[in-house]
Amino acid sequence: MPAPQCASCNKARAALRRPRSGQALCGACFCATFEAEVLHTVVAGRLLPPGAVVAVGASGGKDSTVLAHVLRELAPRLDISLHLVAVDEGIGGYRDAALAAVRRQAARWELPLTVVAYADLFGGWTMDAVARSTAGSGRSRSCCTFCGVLRRRALEEGARLVGATHVVTGHNADDMAETVLMNFLRGDAGRLARGGGLGSPGEGGALPRCRPLQLASQKEVVLYAHFRRLDYFSEECVYAPEAFRGHARDLLKMLEAARPSAVLDLVHSAERLALAPAARPPPPGACSRCGALASRALCQACALLDGLNRGRPRLAIGKGRRGLDEEGPPREPQLSRPPTSQPVPDF
């Protein structure tokens, strides 16, 4: 049976049916529609004002690659400038190949690239060192918890290093739906309350962050990368199989099979969620050590590093954080900016 005509241009043969709407489109029209929808998300949400210097979190994976490519296409219309910021977490046999993909993208698209490393920022700690430290404590599954917090801080530091006014990340609708599910399953009211919207305004001195792909499904992100023939790194992180997120992802796939709108329903439910006054988290303050936004005396990054440096990584996770106040004053600050971090040459 021949493919139907594209419903948009009515000239070319359709190359796909959009997963949600079923609309038949050719590759060119699909890509143009995808870019227009991202543009609408950015403009309607007032995410990136004219003149913004935008740090794009670049991991080399499909989401950040698509995000960087789309924003590069839209940059003249949005009147923004882009700077790729990649984070070297120190994961042997994985991160080097991903960073190589980022460097190829930066060279091909003529975008400046800066790489910041955990080892420089966090007193020599890398993710491989964290994994070794947590392996004997029964916390080997918590690597993604450590990495998520430290990566967020590293991206913030990298963005400040290049003079960015805003930070964007490539989280898509599936990512956000998984996060909502995880927070419900853990009963984490605080994160549920902060999880709505398309980003954060940058309170407490932090840079404003946003997720322009938040309403785009993972399937369409992959399709866009395919039709634009984008070069990206597709291997899964070596620590990902043990993460709790994998269970939420499996559950989400089952829900989506029964109800195709489940992904966006979860995303929008987080936007509309209203907590009872008694369940609302207290207003955030400043970390007593580094000054970053924090809901307790120490921000998450400082708490994690404190537990690692004491040889008790479980202190930094969940209820274990209560022990931080029971073991005397904290050590000297562990967060530091790399002394000679320079933009990585485009090659």
Order of helices and strands: EEHEHEHEHHHEHHEEHHHEEH
Instruction: Show unreliable segments.
Output: 323-334, 337-347
User: What's the number of extended β-strand segments?
Assistant: 10
Briefly, what CATH class of the largest domain? Alpha Beta
CATH architecture title of the largest domain: 3-Layer(aba) Sandwich
Structural class: alpha/beta
Q: Enumerate how many helices there are, as a single number.
A: 12
Radius of gyration: 21 Å
Tally of domains: 2
Helix content: 40-55%
Mean pLDDT: 86
> Widest sheet: strand order?
5-4-3-6-8-7
> How would you describe the shape?
globular
Alpha-carbon distance between the termini? Answer: 46 Å
Describe the 3D structure.
By secondary structure, the protein is an alpha/beta fold. The protein folds into 2 domains: 27-275, Rossmann fold (3-Layer(aba) Sandwich); 285-318, no CATH class. 42% of the residues lie in helices and 10% in strands. It has 12 helices and 10 strands. The chain has helices spanning 27-44, 62-78, 95-109, 118-121, 127-135, 143-161, 173-186, 189-194, 218-227, 245-258, 262-272, 300-309, and strands spanning 16-17, 24-25, 53-57, 81-88, 113-117, 166-168, 199-200, 209-210, 285-286, 293-294. Strands 5-4-3-6-8-7 form a 6-stranded mixed beta sheet. Strands 1-2 form a two-stranded antiparallel sheet. It has a two-stranded antiparallel ribbon with strand order 9-10. Helix 2 (62-78) crosses helix 9, helix 7 packs across helix 10 and helix 7 packs across helix 11. The longest helix has 19 residues, at 143-161. The chain is globular. The termini are far apart. The model is unreliable at 323-334 and 337-347 (pLDDT under 50).
